């Protein structure tokens, strides 16, 4: 019997502040290119001022994935913490607009709603400075058993490991999933997280049904230099691994089944923010609908191609329409 | 007990005539871009004149592979037909210089030694017009049982199917290999061959130990549009498949074992002539020395990278030195 929801996601509830900058801006403001760096409230205020004109849109990695799933027509639940402030209201409204079920109560006090200051350079790369704020306050009490049990797949972002209480909440959600026939999907989120939680992620690996990583993250996890060595290191774990490789497309591996899927060509890469999040959306949509792994990968590639062809980390075109046209739905 | 030779190759004995041309030259002279077209003696003469200044060097797909193997330090035998003429003498001398054992007697009369008029466009693509001449005269009588039995691997180019007597000779060599514990490797050579011999190649497939194809050739063989579908179509055959994908690197598949190997970056692609031939050289060298399949693929990628970084289809640098430096030998 099908469950009422396709995916329940746990993630950081974040509002993105996006500005197009030159490479020199990254140097001047000491921003590491292409990765996510955590910052405190003071530095967030500094950078926000330096950004000047910027666009504010609801973001957060797993939340972007839920936006993608909604655009594909899937039913989803999102759990993540905001504060009762201007950005928190914007985040909640965005979830409601998308039709994503979002019930985590907003915090009445404590730190402000999280924001991610995204500097996009002319090459389309994004460098992120994240102030976690209220997102850190997500706790085990915010995990509703019924939300997890109601979905076919539980999706958790590795970023949550940066907040001890959110990590504890994630582990609780995984426990619930295991006894509820809900499959567990996890994304490594960022190569720098391997420096902080590599051993924990390696321990987690055998317990996952689905595992997302980009090439840099996977290489960092297994401490290898070649992509092929990642592929071989994964074989014993037996989970479905979806490995993204930017312009090289993706590789989907499930035991001895390996699929090499090309990227969907785009006229111009404008902003790679959300590429991995949207890939996950397409892939999870396919999985939740029982599609073949290769087609799940193709759906992921299609969703990623849409989001990198414009600024912002959420789709601007109906992914369902695109997928129907590509005969993937 | 190791055999005295690593590889015995059967191929067209051809001298390459290489000229750098603009794309407009291909249009004016009605040359199909990026593939090999067979031409008769009359058209060969016409094109040769139109080329103006050109470089003449010993070539031929499998012969180039033997040049690569020699550069890597392997021991090889080449079998293929030339005529007793100027180009035939040049071809024989090149084999001798390389240290490749070459004993096929040159024809005293009949058509001239084969030549391949290679037009290289500014994008590094090569378009080949081949006059097969004496190469067509290779027969079963030219196949020496001892040459096949003496090698660990028999390597045959699909191009030979264009000459009925050379095809018969190839099938005889495969028969000898089967009873001599010599592994059989075969390359599809050119996507256009699938139009002429697709069914025959599909019948051959289960009898091969090692199978080389580039992406276009493999798609044409299985009549599929996506690279991943090639990968899945190959699974039941159980041979070692080495699939090259130009800048995307290569994929090596052996049953449930799949390796995704990146291309070796080159500063500038000058001329892709010989890329597939040299990939095969590196791969076969690894195989003959019992290396892991992934390392065979890396050796192939290394040899291909060398040959595309200059004009001509044979290495200009010691591949052995390059491989030692890359810690692949």
Provide the descriptors you would attach to this structure in a database record.
homodimer; 329 residues; alpha/beta; UDP-N-acetylmuramoyl-L-alanine:D-glutamate ligase; nine-stranded mixed sheet; five-stranded mixed sheet; 14 strands
Query: What is the radius of gyration of chain A?
Result: 18 Å
CATH topology of chain A: UDP-N-acetylmuramoyl-L-alanine:D-glutamate ligase
Quickly name the level 1 CATH class of chain A: Alpha Beta
Helix/strand order of chain A, N-terminal first = EEHEHEHEHEEEHEHEHEHHEEEHHH
How many distinct folded domains of chain A?
1
Strand content of chain A: 15-25%
Helix content of chain A: 25-40%
**Overall morphology of chain A:** globular
Q: Would you identify the CATH H-level superfamily of chain A?
A: Ribokinase
Spans of chain A with pLDDT under 50 lasting ≥5 residues?
Answer: none
Sheet with the most strands of chain A?
9 strands, mixed
N-end to C-end Cα span of chain A: 21 Å
Class computed from helices, strands and strand pairing of chain A:
alpha/beta
Count the DSSP helices of chain A: 12
CATH architecture of chain A: 3-Layer(aba) Sandwich
Characterise the protein shown here.
- The structure is a homodimer.
- Chain A has about 325 residues and is of the alpha/beta class.
- Chain A has one domain: UDP-N-acetylmuramoyl-L-alanine:D-glutamate ligase (3-Layer(aba) Sandwich).
- In chain A, about 40% of the residues lie in helices and about 20% in strands.
- The two termini of chain A are about 20 Å apart.
- Chains A and B meet through helix 9 and strand 14 of A and helix 9 and strand 14 of B.
